[in-house]
Amino acid sequence: MAAAALPAAVIFDMDGVLVDSYHAHFVSWRETAQHGGVAFDEQTFARTFGKTSRAIIREVWPSGEVLPDEAIRAIDERKEAAYRAIIEREFPAMPGAIGLIDALAALRVPMAVGSSGPAENVAAALRGLERAPAFAATVTGMDVVNGKPDPEVFLLAAERLGVEHESCVVIEDAPHGVEAARRANMGCVAFASTGHERGDFRAHEDDARVRVVDSLDALTIPLLCELTALSG
Is the pTM for the entire model greater than 0.70? Predict the structure, then answer.
């Protein structure tokens, strides 16, 4: 029997996949919201995690207050600067991320980052991981019109890599991101990372192209090949 084909590419979400960023994002959101007199608890954070900052601000800030674009941009910039200050003090690489990147690079599997975060955050993460050259493409929240669960971020990543999107596999930790991968008709590894549990992905438990793992160390090359074989 022929060996299973490798993915055409692997597209990594950043937060909660490459970076164990749950705590840093929660703290920076809470501080930014407090500055604006807005309540932001961990339940709100968990519900909105994976969306673009702009979408979160529109959802969480008072519904009776219509914020102009420049106000949203100022809140966004304040929050993301606070986040970067936290991770740059002590970079929280996700356990298993560097080993997985190196294994895929050794097999010459193209890799991309598909993130809802800003370009500055993606750059900071790749610096912290010391693996920037391994990624042939990046897509950030500023590159797309529609955030996850819309598939735009992953479709654009495949386009920038020059590969067929149906043969890509996405690694995601947020339900919004898993839904985006499935709408893109890509295989998806749903990673129950910090702040998540297997039950968060219950909506996809009958989907053959979604596999749930509890750690990146449990994400094997044969599993990625299996998801690729189920393409289309």
Answer: yes
